[in-house]
Each structure stands twice: as C-alpha cells, then as structure tokens.
Amino acid sequence: MAGSPAGPEIERLIQLLAKLPGLGPRSARRAALALLKKRESLLDPLADAMAKAAAALRLCSACGNLDTSDPCALCRDHTRDTGIICVVEDVADLWALERAAIFRGKYHVLGGALSALDGVTPERLNLPTLMERVRGGGTSEIILAMNATVEGQTTAHYLMDALESSGAKITRLAHGVPVGGELDYLDEGTLSAAFKARRPF
Question: What is the pTM of this model?
Fold first, then answer.
C-alpha cells in the first residue's frame, strides 16, 4: 500500500476538510492543496479568522442562534416584532430565512428535530427556553418553520400540541417547501412564497 504523499499535519487538514458538508475526500484534497499553495493570501488569513471566530463564538441564551455576543444581534434588534416567534430546527435555517429578508420578528432555534431512530427526544431540544418565552406573554403568533422531512413534521406536531394552550396563533410554512427539502438549500423565492402563504396548523 502506497504511503501518504504529505506529512501528518497536512493529512489532518485534509481529514478535517473532508468532514465539511459538500466536501468528500477528493474535494478536501483539492481544497487543502489550494490553501497550501496560497499560504499567505488564503491559508494564514483563514486560520486567523477561524481562531478568532472560535474564540468569539457564543450561543444566544435567548433564541439559540450562534453569534459573537449573548444575546445575539437579532435578539438585541429593537426594530423586530417581539410578538412573533419563528421556530426553526437549526441555525442554518435561521440564516436562510434572514438571507431571504422576509421575516422581521424573533427566532427560536431548537437545535434539531425529534427522531426516534437517532435518539433525539424532546429533552435534547431547546424547548424549555421556548416555553418560557411564550409563557412570558406578549406572543401573538408562533410560526413553526420546520423542514419538510418526517422528523421536521413530527417536531411541528409535537410543538403544536405543547403550545396549544399558549393563546398564540400557531402557523406553519405553506407546502411550497418541497417534501424532503431543507430550508438551507431552498432559493429565496421559494422561501419567500412559502413564508407568505403560511396558515394555521
């Protein structure tokens, strides 16, 4: 069996890059080689930016978003409507909705979706904070913006039951979101149409 053409440090870089979404072993090798060939303009600035991001990273105690401050910039934004909470599975979904610029309320990130196969139970999700926010009063609408997967819809039904007594209107995204689709992979037009056509659960 042939040995590695690169040292252990470079192999480690390739292995870590291969763990990123959309990068397999071959793509990771190409990405690593591009970084190494442009050390001063790419590798060093990237390493510096990653170190700074890792040091500054905070999980928002209010909504679960990732930011460099707690509470996050979205929770601190006083121009947003505090009466509407959009519940999403993951930070990627929150970022997708923000890119589409279609929502001006507050968010809540669950940190996943219910899945019996993967052992994700309600206790493993960011549910207590959501219930506390809703019990605090002033919430007129809760939008369940779950992915159109079996797990996402199971989570939406669970939340609908849990929030039924809150007094807030509970809505979900329209079915313009394709079955099996994830919010982070949808274009802004599809997201916008689905968001505007939301209806009571």
Answer: 0.80
